[in-house]
Amino acid sequence: PFLSLTPGSEQVYLATGFAEGIAMRLGNATSLRVAPLAAIRPNEGPFEAGRRLETDAVLTGTIQRIGSRLQ
């Protein structure tokens, strides 16, 4: 999951979209099993979800809009 550092519901959608896009691309790699974002329970942290889903790794990140730029 990605966390938006910029307030506003639009930014939450953007962070979710980035996470879903990256998950789809990683899921195309035949050597990886990618758990869907929907498998994360509400109010569950990414590392708790990773343990519950028995993953080997958890990818997290942040996204922030500054003016017209994303970083």
Helix/strand layout:
Elements: E1 2-4, H1 9-27, H2 46-52, E2 61-63, E3 65-66, E4 69-70
Characterization of this structure:
The protein has 71 residues and is an alpha+beta fold. 37% of the residues lie in helices and 14% in strands. The protein has two helices and four strands, in the order βααβββ. The strands form two sheets. The chain has a two-stranded parallel sheet with strand order 1-2. A two-stranded antiparallel sheet has the order 3-4. A hairpin with a 2-residue loop joins strand 3 and strand 4. The radius of gyration is 13 Å and the shape is globular.
Key terms:
71 residues; two-stranded parallel sheet; two-stranded antiparallel ribbon; alpha+beta
Proportion of residues in extended strands: 5-15%
Gyration radius from CA atoms, angstroms: 13 Å
Distance between the termini: 16 Å
The beta-strand count equals 4
The average pLDDT value, as a whole number, equals 87
What structural class results from the helix and strand content? Answer: alpha+beta
What's the SSE pattern?
EHHEEE
> Stretches where pLDDT falls below 50 for ≥5 residues?
none
Helix tally equals 2
Helix content: 25-40%
Note the main sheet.
2 strands, parallel
Shape: globular
Strand order across the biggest sheet?
A: 1-2
